[in-house]
Structure formats: C-alpha cells, structure tokens
Specification:
Blueprint: E1 6-11, E2 14-18, H1 25-32, E3 35-41, E4 47-48, H2 51-65, H3 73-87, E5 92-99, E6 106-112, H4 118-123, E7 125-130, H5 144-154, E8 160-163, E9 172-173, E10 177-182, E11 185-187, H6 197-205, E12 212-213, E13 225-232, E14 236-243, E15 246-247, H7 255-271, E16 273-274
Parallel strand pairs: 7-8, 7-14, 11-12
Antiparallel strand pairs: 1-2, 1-6, 3-5, 4-16, 5-6, 8-9, 10-11, 10-13, 13-14, 14-15
Helix pairs in contact: 6-7
Length: 275
C-alpha cells in the first residue's frame, strides 16, 4: 500500500521531494533524521492556528538543546507554503523539522488530515500511566518519539500514556498536555512539561468557566478527580474517562470538559489566519 506521507527537504532555498515510504510521521522521522520539530494542521482556505507560536517554540527548543536554528519565521512560512503547493494536499497535517545534522535545512512532512473519531469526544478515552519523565521537558525534541513509541507498546489499547514523575505528579502525556478537575478547579502543570499551543488557548478561555490551579495532579488525587482531559494541536480537547484503570467521575465526559471544548473551538475559529 503506497504511503500517504509526502516528504520534502529545503536546502539553499531549493525544495526537493524525498523518496521516503512511511506509515507515520514518526517512522518518516526515523528515516530522515532527528531535530526540533512541531506538528500542526491546515484548516479550510489554507488557514492555520498560531503558526508563529509553533515556530517560536521550535526556536526556544533549539536554544534549550544548544543547537543552531538559523531560520526566521517568515522563511519557515515560505518553506511550508511551497511544500503545501507541491504536495497537492488541500488541508494537510504537517510536521516541520529543523534537523540536528543539517540545521540550515528543513524537513517538511505532509499527510491528509484525518479528524479524530467523533466517539472520542462523545464517550471519552482511556489512558495509561508510566513513571517516566522527559530529560528536557520544555524542548520539542524528536528523539523522544522513540521513548513514546516504547511506552505505547507497553500499554496497548490505551489512547495515550500519561507521564508520572518520581514524586507522583502527572505533568503531561507523551504527546499531549493533561488537566484534571478537582474540587471545582482545573489542575494542570505550570512548569516541567512541554507547553502546547492548544494548551495556551485552553488556559485563556478556562478562567471564564472555572478557576485554574497551576499544579499538576497527583496520582493520589485520582479518586477525587471529577473530570479529566488532554489537549494537542490536531486533537483539540479530548475527554478522559479512565486513567490506569481508575474511573474518572461518572465514567463519561463531564460538563466542564464539554464547555472547555466548545470555548476552545470558538476561539480557534476566531483566530485562524492564512499560512
């Protein structure tokens, strides 16, 4: 079966399609080389959400990792526009990488965007728990995908795996940010995790719905969690109904999660910009 993923490399302002066959962005990354990266999607009419924030986070990641990042946001936008045109895809999901081995270049992967199944928002998802922490949680480093892949293999059937630090706090998931409603407040990490773009929007709309406590939930608090959710750029706000076998609240998406998801969707629609 032919791959749906299209891969380009830019070097010296030249865009070249790479002969990469892969079934996922992670597999394609293993073949093209690691780097600091970001994943986002295009909406109708070639619009995008907070692209500069994605690019600024990549630059900050490079600073944390001590690697070069010789690109301006406008240069990267132009690379993305050219890759989208060359791919022929209308509303792709995109992974942009600045490789460690050749930071003057960029690698741009595109695939048709497939919306998450509607049932995950209607019924919620089950997630696992792993006692693992990122070495440098503030950096978007593609080398972590190897760790992520192993954690998911160890817990088949789980939609996501949450990370638990040595003190029992849950700051994030392997590819998402994490939140829990406890005693009428929204608990989420304020540091020690990768700050997602979707997270930034959710935390802007959340105070109008409930107070926000910038403390990561603790495993000992799971029996008191009435609602839980995760966020990521291509999934939005996803309700969690079970964590490591512990049922959350009534075992179905709760009203706070639904209100936060609706507020997030409204904000997204108002902020979309041309790429």
């Amino acid at each position: 079966m032919p791959s749906d993923i299209v891969v380009f490399r830019t070097s010296n302002h030249e865009l070249t399609r790479l002969p990469v066959e892969a079934s996922s962005f992670d597999e394609a990354t293993m073949k093209t080389g690691h780097g600091t990266y970001s994943v986002f999607r295009l909406y109708s009419r070639r619009r995008v959400l907070r692209l500069d924030q994605h690019l600024d986070r990549m630059r900050h990641s490079a600073e944390l990792l001590g690697v070069p990042f010789p690109h301006t946001n406008e240069e990267l936008r132009e690379h993305i526009r050219r890759a989208v045109d060359a791919s022929g895809l209308e509303m792709p999901r995109i992974r942009l990488t600045v490789p460690y081995a050749d930071p003057e270049s960029t690698v741009i992967m595109l695939e048709p965007f497939a919306p998450p199944p509607a049932e995950i928002y209607t019924y919620g998802v089950r997630v696992g728990l792993a006692h693992v922490s990122r070495e440098m949680p503030g950096a978007k480093d593609s080398r972590f995908i190897q760790v992520r892949s192993e954690l998911r293999k160890q817990q088949p059937g789980m939609y996501e795996v949450l990370l638990c630090d040595e003190d029992g706090y849950i700051p994030e998931g392997t590819s998402s940010n994490f939140y829990a409603v406890i005693d009428g407040k929204l608990y989420t990490a304020g540091k020690g995790m990768l700050e997602g773009i979707t997270r930034s929007i959710l935390l802007e709309v959340a105070p109008a719905i409930l107070p926000v406590e910038f403390t990561p939930p603790h495993v000992d608090q799971l029996p008191r969690v009435s609602e839980a959710m995760l966020t990521s750029s291509t999934r939005g706000v996803v309700p969690i109904v079970e964590i490591a076998g512990e049922r959350i609240g009534a075992g179905r998406p709760g009203p706070v999660t639904m209100r936060l998801g609706a507020a997030y969707d409204d904000r997204v629609e108002s902020e979309l910009e041309e790429i």
